[in-house]
Amino acid sequence: MRLKNSLPLVIVILFVGAAFSALAQAPPAAKGPKPFSPFAIGGGFSGYNPDEGHGHLLGGTLWIDYIPAGLPQLLNGIGVEVEARDLNLDRSSTDAPNHRQDYVGGGLIYSWPHFRQLRPYAKLFMGYGNQDETVLKSGLRYSDSRTVTSGGGGVDFRATRQLWLRVDYEYQSWPTIFKHPDTAIPAGRLNPQGFTVGAIYHF
Per-residue pLDDT tens for 16-55? Predict the structure, then answer.
């Protein structure tokens, strides 16, 4: 009779004990390092040779990266990057006063994840580019847009746990675009190239 009356009390004690045991195990798991989100965003300052005569153009670049975790070992480090660039500053004195190159595109990026403090990477992109220019002799303004392919790479250096400094190089190909209208050279391929220095934050 006493055993029958004690059974509910025993069940309650076992339940409470299991609950305390579960709570005791929760804090160590919560104190572990927070994993990186697969998303990162950053920006930088770019200096490019626009391949339109001689000179340079400066401007800004924006990056958005998505590098998923949990991929097979062979694919570890592969991801997708989207970038946008506007080059319209500090034109050379021989350049048109409104010369401008804009670009937005994206594609695959592969980052070698085997180092703790730096990550070399390579990228292969396709995007959309636009060039504006006023012909110095005639004063006519030209604007032309093309599908652009590009490739490049760089290195990310760890500054803090989630902030990385970036040095990036890119080589672009703009097919059959107007070129040097003042000298009557027919349309041809432009190959702008340059460097960007900036930072990217991993959430």
Answer: 444 434 334 444 444 444 456 789 999 999 999 988 766 7
Q: What is the mean pLDDT of residues 161-173?
A: 96
Amino acid (1-letter code) at residue 53: G
Q: Can you tell me the distance from the alpha carbon of 44 to that of 50, in angstroms, rounded to the nearest whole number? A: 18
pTM of the model: 0.76
Instruction: For residue 181, give the CATH number of its domain.
Output: 2.40.160.20
| Three-state SS sequence of the chain | CHHHHHHHHHHHHHHHHHHHHHHHHHHHHHCCCCCCCCEEEEEEEEEEECCCCCCCEEEEEEEEEECCCCCCHHHCCEEEEEEEEEEEECCCCCCCCCCEEEEEEEEEEEECCCCCCEEEEEEEEEEEEEEEEECCCCCCEEEEEEEEEEEEEEEEEECCCCEEEEEEEEEEEEEEECCCHHHCCCCEEECCEEEEEEEEEEC
Pick the closest to residue 42 from 159, 130, 126 (CA basis).
159
Residue 149 structural domain: 38-202
Claim to verify: residue 115 and residue 132 sit in the same structural domain: yes
Question: Quick check: 60 and 45 in contact, CB under 8 A?
Answer: yes
